[in-house]
Design goal:
It is a single chain. Strands 1-2-3-5-4 form a 5-stranded mixed β-sheet. The two termini are 71 Å apart. Helices cover 62% and strands 11% of the residues. The radius of gyration is 44 Å and the shape is rod-shaped. The protein has helices at residues 8-26, 44-55, 61-75, 82-98, 101-126, 129-212, 216-244, 262-273, 295-315, 353-365, and strands at residues 278-284, 319-327, 331-339, 368-375, 381-390. It folds into 2 domains: 8-170, no CATH class; 257-398, Histidine kinase-like ATPase, C-terminal domain (Heat Shock Protein 90), CATH 3.30.565.
Length: 398
């Protein structure tokens, strides 16, 4: 086992204590003239042992305290050296400051009991005021350094705890900031995809049709649809840029889409999908007099219908596309069905981000979402998107 290297400060303290002790011994300055051991060199041995304990006061505090206690007791059987006693007070202090927590708690109580015990024993034995004086000196040698060490250790631990709390607070703040950035980027990605994908998909489909079919009427119709979707797509992009900036430059901020615009959305899809053989219908079973819902729910429902219609335009073969809205006391149900299968002719590429965005929107509101192929009542395969959103208007009392 390799012993830890003594700290440089401890070596300096030990060297200074040994030099002072030897100087006092050399000049014959002792604590008492009469002692059980009156040999002149006797005080040097406890002094040397105490010097050794000073070198390990920080690295081996309990060992230093044990050896220091033996040395200071041995010092009392000689003529004594004040340097040995002073170094012992430092060893007691270091044992509390640098020792394990259990020792740091026990040493002040132990030294306090020792001080009280010495004082009571001397009072019973001598029965004079000198016993009290010796008791005070004993307290100054062992109990007072221990209490001082406990106070210093408590302050250090409190400072360390405060530093750790500050670091944890900073870490939590950074985590919150990172999560907020990720959430905002995801929201921006959903908005960008839902705003622009519908128009770009229609442009891609009709431009492909215009290039593949050598027919003037078809080309003119495709170009008309392309122009309409380009203009509307640019308007949606301006709105998105306005959301990202402090001010978009408009006189008034553009309102977020609501379910009131579902009719126009389906009509636009009907125009875009006419050349692909798709027909679009809307079944709005909501009560017109009870249509008030939270704005986030309205926006999510609108975007789900918009993305579902976009996917139908990009992937569905010819057939009916049905949009249905229903609401009860607690839930708004949005369902979009479209033909399922291989689509002939031009087809726009897809990335799957639309389904991810729809699922995220529903999850953020605490609703339920499912999308995939199902079997219709007539036995045919259809693609169904179904979302159940909380429709209650939340209010706060007071």
């Amino acid at each position: 086992m390799t012993l830890p290297r003594p700290h440089r400060v401890d070596l300096l303290i030990a060297s200074a204590g040994l030099a002072c002790g030897l100087m006092l011994w050399g000049f014959g300055i002792v604590n008492r003239t009469e002692a059980p051991i009156e040999l002149r060199w006797a005080p040097v041995l406890p002094l040397v042992v105490m010097t050794v304990t000073e070198t390990v006061r920080r690295t081996l505090p309990r060992t230093a305290l044990a050896l220091g206690t033996l040395a200071v007791v041995a010092n009392e059987f000689t003529q004594g050296n004040i340097a040995t006693i002073l170094m012992f007070t430092d060893v007691v202090y270091a044992a509390v400051v640098y020792g394990p927590p259990a020792s740091a708690r026990r040493i002040p109580y132990t030294t306090g009991l020792i001080t009280i015990g010495i004082t009571i024993a001397l009072l019973v034995w001598w029965q004079n005021a000198i016993a009290l004086l010796i008791g005070v000196v004993s307290g100054m040698v062992c109990f007072l350094p221990a209490v001082t060490g406990a106070v210093v250790r408590n302050h250090r631990e409190a400072a360390e705890a405060a530093r750790l709390r500050a670091e944890q607070t900073a870490l939590l703040a950074e985590m919150d900031r990172s999560q907020a950035v990720v959430a905002e980027r995801a929201r921006m990605a959903r908005e960008l995809h839902d705003m622009v994908a519908n128009h770009l998909s229609a442009i891609a489909i009709h431009s492909t049709a215009a290039l593949s079919l050598d027919d003037a009427a078809t080309t003119r119709q495709a170009l008309t649809v392309i122009r309409e979707n380009s203009v509307e797509g640019l308007a949606e992009m301006r709105r998105l840029i306005g959301l990202l900036r402090d001010s978009s430059g408009d006189a008034e901020p553009a309102a977020a889409p609501t379910l009131a615009g579902i009719d126009a959305l389906v009509a636009q899809a009907r125009t875009n999908g006419e050349s692909s053989g798709l027909t679009f219908t809307l079944d709005d079973a909501r009560d017109p007099e009870d249509s008030r819902m939270p704005a986030p729910v309205e926006l999510a429902a609108y975007r789900i219908v918009q993305e579902s219609l976009t996917n139908a335009l990009k992937h569905a073969p010819a057939g009916p596309v049905a949009v249905s809205l229903a609401r009860d006391a607690r839930t708004l149900t949005v369902q979009v069905t479209s033909p399922f299968g291989d689509r002939p002719g031009p087809r726009a590429p897809g990335s799957g981000a639309g389904l991810v965005g729809m699922r995220e929107r529903v999850a953020l509101l605490g609703g339920a979402f499912e999308a995939g192929p199902v079997t219709a009542a007539d036995g045919t395969k259809i693609w169904q998107v179904r979302a159940e959103l909380p429709a209650e208007e939340r209010t706060s009392d007071g």
